[in-house]
Amino acid sequence: MWHGRGKTAIVGIGYSEITRKPEKPLGLLALDACRAAIEDAGLDARRIDGLATYPESPFAGAGNRDGEDVVSVSFVLNHLGAAADVRWYAQIETGMIASPVIEAVNALLVGACDYALVWRALHRPILRGGSAASKGAPRASGDAQFIAPYGAASIVQTHAFAWRRYMHRYGATREALAALALNSRRNANLNPRAFFHFTPMSREDYFNARMIAEPLCLFDCDVPVDGCVALIVTTADRARDLRNQPAYIAGYGQNTARRRTLLYYTLDDYMACGGSLAQKLWSSAGLGPEEMDAAQLYDGFNPSTLYWLEAAGFCGEGEGADFVAGGRIALDGELPINTFGGSLSEGRMHGMGHIAEAVRQVTDRAERRQIAGASAVCAIDGSPMLRGSGIVVTRDP
Amino acid sequence: MSGEVETTRKPVPAADELTRPFWDAARAGRLVIQRCSACGYYNHPPRNFCDACLARELAFTPVSGRGAVFSFTVMHQRDVAGFENDAPFINIVVEIAEQPMLMMVANLPIGERERVRIGAPVEVCFEDRGDGVAIPQFRII
């Protein structure tokens, strides 16, 4: 077991508005979330001495103007009012959303900082500078020259390719994705921060939704929003003096397996890559999938949740579709999944919503979604074929 | 669906020092893939060193042009640069016969929608995109 187990904790959660019609630039939404997290923890901004984020734009070409398209450490340093005391920061571009949390844990364990603020800000890009008015065809360079001329440069197509393989290999149908999407929507209807809080979804709604990239429909894609989620991480000793019950970080894991293709990531890699993460996650936490009271599993595209169920050992390879049927993943089921609505229905916060909900569940702060006495919950982010990072949080250290 | 939307032209490959032999061959109606002289591994997209063994001796080598559909999708979303008015259109991933997991991307005509399936055998053909640009495509055989 990992020597850092239970020595750090998440003690504050902050959300900005999650919206498709933002009234302010992304940087200001991020500051809203950061200030809300600090306040939730009962701290003063001047106590924040560590900053970390995962700043990547939601897709290539989405822009990188600081404070508008991305919110960097520099932006928060400049505008939060914590700058004088900051002594550690990191911008993580490997792994996924849990990665800056993991780095903050490491920094706290060696005393590089005492109170780390971790945020993820995401916007809904408006593609600018299209070349419609320019003469000649746009030119695709780098590896894109083998993809863009075919109109295949969107990430949704990559996921459609993988899910088609999964259906072919294991005989799964769209029923499995419907079960996941409907479960997430029901949970979002109980989550006041969710974009789809007031919007129910029926089975007919799911199957009547327009196709995006077959066999993936609109409701298999996360809902792109503007917003930010922020967390406060500190040492267990300091956590005990704060107002919230701490969510102790029991362990973490990152995906370290090698991909087998240059052009695309494929389904063939999901068990190896996801499994490499899970093995480290479970061994560091000293807990296994059977000990999780709920699982918050990444769902940027709906099939990823199914892949994580298998790769993390909640069920066997190819058994995900059966596993999610029959209410097992509902709030009152054997393994509640994405109890806050996931990215599909809360909004595309790239996994920060997953971590925040894991924290809420083990600290009795999950509102009408609370799983009574939940003692250990995992949050795993990323698409297992490509990348990922995850943590386990626990009620007790 | 609403009517025509403003469209960009379909992107064309910007051949560079590394990839020019691939595109020159395509213009001449030949499919070549970069192969490692040290270990025999095919690399695509091209690299300055082999993805399998890191050797730097790589040579563009003619391949059979045969393969099989590894996966496919019918794209409906009308936000793909240059393809705004093509939706729905088909994208396939082809596994080239010479090596497992050696992948290329292509299109099929939308008329092949009922016929395309994983494992369908395909062979290379070439699409003229004008301005001296041809891109490899595949057809079901």
CATH class of the largest domain in chain B: Mainly Beta
Structural class of chain B: mainly beta
Kindly give the count of domains of chain B. 2
Low-confidence stretches of chain A: 128-133
**Which CATH architecture of chain A?**
3-Layer(aba) Sandwich
State the order of secondary-structure elements of chain A, H for helix, E for strand.
EHEHEHEEHHHEEEHEHEHHHHEE
- The low-confidence parts of chain B are none
Annotation, overall tally of beta strands of chain A: 12
- Biggest interface and which pair forms it? A-B, 44 and 45 residues
Q: On the 0-100 scale, what is the average pLDDT of chain A?
A: 93
Approximate helicity band of chain B: under 10%
In helices, the fraction of residues of chain A equals 25-40%
Q: In percent terms, what proportion of residues of chain B is strand?
A: 35-45%
Q: Main sheet of chain B: which strands, in order across? A: 7-6-5-8-9
Gyration radius of chain A (Cα, Å) is: 20 Å
Tell me which CATH architecture of the largest domain in chain B applies here. Beta Barrel
CATH uppermost class of chain A = Alpha Beta
Arrangement of strands in the largest sheet of chain A = 3-2-4-8-1-9-12-11-10
Plain-language structure description:
By secondary structure, chain A is α/β, with parallel strands linked by helices. Chain A has a single domain, classed as Peroxisomal Thiolase, Chain A, domain 1 (3-Layer(aba) Sandwich), CATH 3.40.47. In chain A, 30% of the residues lie in helices and 16% in strands. Chain A contains 12 helices and 12 strands. Chain A has a 9-stranded mixed sheet, with helices on both faces. In chain A, helix 1 crosses helix 2 and helix 8 packs across helix 9. Chain A is globular, with a radius of gyration of 20 Å. Chain A starts with 7 loop residues before the first strand and ends with a strand. Chain B is mainly β. Chain B has 2 domains: 47 residues, no CATH class; 78 residues, Beta Barrel (OB fold (Dihydrolipoamide Acetyltransferase, E2P)), CATH 2.40.50. Chain B contains 1 helix and 9 strands. A 5-stranded antiparallel sheet of chain B has the order 7-6-5-8-9, covered by helices on one side. Chain B is globular, with a radius of gyration of 16 Å. The termini of chain B are far apart. The mean pLDDT of chain B is 94. The chains are: A alpha/beta (397), B mainly beta (141). At the A-B interface, strand 5, helix 4 and strand 6 of A face strand 1, strand 5, strand 6 and strand 7 of B. Strand 5 of chain A pairs parallel with strand 1 of chain B, so a sheet runs across the interface.
